[in-house]
From TrEMBL:
Keywords: Signal. Residues 1-20 form the signal peptide. InterPro entries: BhsA/McbA_stress_biofilm_assoc, Dodecin-like, YdgH-like_sf, YdgH/BhsA/McbA-like_dom. The keyword rRNA processing does not apply. It comes from the Bacteria. Residues 37-91 form the YdgH/BhsA/McbA-like domain. The lineage of its organism: Bacteria, Pseudomonadati, Pseudomonadota, Gammaproteobacteria, Enterobacterales. This is DUF1471 domain-containing protein. PANTHER family: OUTER MEMBRANE PROTEIN, OUTER MEMBRANE PROTEIN-RELATED-RELATED. The keyword Signal applies.
Length: 91
């Protein structure tokens, strides 16, 4: 519960709107009783930076009405550092 409160306060301080999905890590997802997995999304696009990838994941999470997401960033060998991303969404 403390994790949820801290994440909510961080969201308010960052200036994002209330419907924004909150990024959590695997440890938080396991320890938050009220979190239910909605499944994994895959974004078929190469991203040059982690920030671009995180923004795309957050946008997709919001479209799926997810309250939380855990991003999975994957770099492909020989792809100039570009990333393919996926994320597990939670409600």
């Amino acid at each position: 519960m403390k994790t949820i409160i801290l994440a909510f306060v961080a969201m308010l301080l960052s200036g994002t709107h209330a419907a924004a999905a909150i990024k959590i890590d695997q440890h938080q997802a396991r320890n938050m009783d009220e979190v239910m997995s909605l499944g994994v999304i895959y974004i078929n696009h190469n991203f040059a930076t982690e920030q671009e990838a995180e923004e795309a994941i957050n946008d997709d999470a919001e479209r799926h009405a997810a309250r939380y997401y855990r991003s999975i960033l994957m770099r492909e060998p020989g792809s100039n550092g570009n990333m393919h991303v996926s994320a597990e969404l939670y409600r």
